[in-house]
Amino acid sequence: MDIATFLGLFSGIIVIVISILIEGGLSSFWSISSLFIVLGGTLAATMVNYPMSQFVGSIKIMQIAFKDQVIEPAETINTIVAFAEKARREGLLALEAEAEALDEPFLKKGIQLIVDGTDPELVRSILETELNFVEERHRQGAQIFESMGASAPAFGMMGTLIGLILMLTNLEDPSKIGPGMAVALITTFYGSVLANLFFIPIAGKLKIRSGKEILNKELMLEGILSIQAGENPRIVAEKMKSFLNPIERNKLERKNDGDV
Predict the structure, then answer these.
(1) Which is it for the CA torsion 206, 212, 214, 220, positive or negative?
(2) Percent of the chain, pLDDT > 90?
(3) From 61, 63, 138, 152, which residue has the greatest number of CB atoms within 10 Å?
(4) 92: which DSSP letter?
């Protein structure tokens, strides 16, 4: 579970609620019709914009933002180095059983390819193609929530216009103008909150998660090719450490030094 996502959403809601309570009551900010226009309209526009399979899949994609299941680069490097050491001692065929036990499909496929004696250039081509498709799927997932973030304020404004039109039909009763204006503006409020507290931040979190996963897979790709080339495990480790920023690199080195 990603604490930051839950904490961010919870904190945002609390800040808004407290701000409202300081000046008035929550009942003035509740309107089922306004929520129906904004949320229903945003979902409808998203279905028009994307195929149904992608729209339904966005629910599953959203769960990624609430889960912390990304493998850390340090863990990937240690796994690859262990494979390199075993391959150097016992040969590539010794990795076949290790590959079957892997939970990471990308790494599993790469190890199986080199165990089968696939040409290095073909291995790189196959894995890079898969990497590109993974990156594209992630991009599309984040794009759906960015689209929702753009649609929600627009439907909020649409709801406001509907409310204003209905209010103007009752101009003969001045006592209804103030409450009518308040209800009209609630839809804009809902659209802004949904876009800026939920849809756009979720899209941003998905992009960050995608970046981490792509980095991990790039590490795996370089490690797999290094193992196939028969490089020294120490060289393999140093090559993959070059993908890390200095902080992560130092943390990995301290951890490995502590394990020795």
Answers:
(1) negative
(2) 34
(3) 152
(4) G
Q: For 38-95, what is each residue's pLDDT tens digit?
A: 999 999 999 999 999 888 888 888 887 777 666 778 888 888 999 999 988 888 888 8
Distance CA(116)–CA(93), nearest Å, equals 8
Beta carbons within 8 Å of 85's beta carbon, 6+ residues apart: 233
193 part of a folded domain: yes
In the chain, how many domains are there? 1
Residue 243's domain spans which residues? 38-73+122-255
Return the amino acid letter for 141: G
Tell me how far apart the alpha carbons of residues 154 and 207 are, in angstroms, rounded to a whole number.
24
Residue 79: closest CA among 231, 223, 250, 258: 223
98 lies in some domain: no
Residue type, 27: S
**Domain for residue 78, yes or no?**
no
Identity of the residue numbered 126: I
